[in-house]
Amino acid sequence: MSGIIIKNPEQIEGIRKSCVLAAETLDYAEQFVKEGVSTEEIDSKIEEFIINHGAIPATKGYNGYPKSSCISLNEVVCHGIPSEKTILKKGDILNIDITTILNGYYGDTSRMFSVGEISPAADKLIQTTKHCLDLGIQQVKPDNHFGNIGFVISRYARAQGFSVVYEFCGHGVGVKFHEDPQVDHTSRRNSGPRMKPGMIFTIEPMINQGRASTNIDRTDGWTARTVDNKLSAQFEHTILVTATGFEVLTDIHNNYPVT
Prior knowledge:
With 259 residues, this protein is an alpha+beta fold. The chain has helices at 9-29, 39-52, 120-137, 147-159; strands spanning 56-57, 70-73, 76-78, 93-102, 105-114, 163-164, 170-172, 179-183, 200-203, 206-208, 214-216, 224-226, 232-234, 237-241, 246-248. It has a single domain (9-248), classed as Creatinase/methionine aminopeptidase superfamily (Creatine Amidinohydrolase), CATH 3.90.230. Strands 1, 2, 4 and 5 form a 4-stranded antiparallel beta sheet that branches. Strands 3-12-11 form a 3-stranded antiparallel beta sheet, with no helix packed on it. Strands 6-10-13 form a 3-stranded antiparallel beta sheet, covered by helices on one side. β11 and β12 (224-226) form a beta hairpin. The model has no long low-confidence stretch (mean pLDDT 97).
């Protein structure tokens, strides 16, 4: 546990403000998610919004990543690169992933969007993935094991007939983009380090219709797709461990009461 940063009150407040901006950016982006719009257009609006609010998009230039957000459609699990050639069409599902740097602090969140009417199967996948995130968040409290997050997520997802991506995970965040600990979404009960007040990390389950494994695009080196081209969905929040439970720092709609 020595590598996990316990944030002080000043850091927590800075991270909280960045998390609010990241969530507000997602809300702002929603109006542009419609048939005929390119993912490049959405990314440009996202970049403009973040910069206009005095922040920096954390993904742009990160290890060579070229854009200000990740926009992952349909069979893309994560790290989809926005492009002029990727045009939204009716029935698409997509994840938009935003990380902001505001006054040096990071806020990280993502959620699913849909274009027009989607299939019942796609809707079930999205609803299941959202519930997986909710179940994971409920595990956040002092002295609980990090492994219990992945345990409840994988148990529920598999009971619904889906698989859990194991090649990508949640992570500590706030002072840096990616910190300890690694937050797996499939793990053994009571495994891993224990949570302590002041820890901040993401939970971001990626749930697949078909097989759990992914392929990374050899051309761009980023885009992760399902190996069987079946749909994938993801939701993500940044969470603070409080003295008695949790605070979801990227929840600007009061869906998660502070515990």
